[in-house]
């Protein structure tokens, strides 16, 4: 007989397994050395693609169940059961081009030549990836709260007395 499964479920199980192997935020930050040098190199590469993509620190926020993905809705990302979703799009990619976080807003995937060049430049670091910008994340930082992450305006952190700790855990950078 035939196995009763959906390709979508199989793909999402693979995504959750991949996601659950990602380092923690703290571990990823420790592994990202020579930041200014990397920013300078990657900035030029991303500019060649009209800055449609940004650089992100690849890490897990939580452990996903087999049928979950990390999904961004507006400014909040959290685990979501994939079977309850009508539409979702890849939003963050490993240097290999594999998507590991998703969003409800339409995106475009990085072109193959960008993936190859990015992989060549950054794969040795092991914790950098690409994310789709589309002008929506300009001037925002990421704050982690449990299994959720929130995009917040940078000026909120500049007024905060704990702004240095937030700057130290910035997840995404642009240009």
Tally of structural domains: 1
The run of helices and strands is HHHEEEEEHEEEHHE
Radius of gyration: 16 Å
Total number of strands: 9
Return the structural class. Answer: alpha+beta
| β-strand amount | 25-35%
Count of DSSP H/I helices: 6
Low-pLDDT runs of 5+ residues are 1-10, 138-145, 150-175
Integer average pLDDT: 77
Strand order in space, largest sheet: 7-8-3-2-5-4-6-1-9
Largest sheet: 9 strands, mixed
Helix content: 25-40%
From the spread of the alpha carbons, the general shape counts as: globular
Structure description:
This protein has 175 residues and is an alpha+beta fold. The protein has one domain (7-136). Helices cover 33% and strands 26% of the residues. It is built from 6 helices and 9 strands. A 9-stranded mixed beta sheet has the order 7-8-3-2-5-4-6-1-9. A hairpin with a 2-residue loop joins strand 7 and strand 8 (148-153). Helix 3 packs antiparallel against helix 4 (112-122). The termini are far apart. Mean pLDDT is 77; it is low at 1-10, 138-145 and 150-175. Residues 155-175 are annotated as: Disordered. Residues 160-175 have a biased composition (Low complexity).
């Amino acid at each position: 007989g035939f196995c009763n499964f959906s390709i979508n479920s199989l793909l999402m199980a693979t995504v959750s397994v991949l996601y659950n192997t990602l380092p923690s935020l703290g571990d990823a930050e420790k592994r990202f050395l020579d930041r200014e040098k990397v920013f300078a190199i990657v900035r030029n590469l991303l500019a060649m693609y009209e800055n449609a993509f940004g650089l992100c620190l690849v890490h897990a926020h939580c452990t996903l169940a087999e049928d979950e993905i990390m999904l961004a809705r507006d400014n909040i990302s959290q685990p979501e059961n994939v079977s309850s979703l009508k539409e979702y799009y890849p939003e963050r990619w490993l240097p290999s081009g594999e998507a590991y976080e998703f969003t409800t807003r339409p995106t475009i995937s990085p072109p193959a030549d960008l993936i190859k060049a990015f992989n060549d430049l950054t794969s040795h670091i092991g914790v950098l990836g690409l994310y789709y910008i589309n002008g929506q994340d300009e001037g925002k930082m990421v704050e982690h709260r449990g299994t959720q992450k929130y995009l917040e305006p940078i000026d909120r952190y500049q007024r905060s007395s704990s702004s240095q700790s937030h700057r130290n855990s910035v997840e995404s950078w642009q240009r």
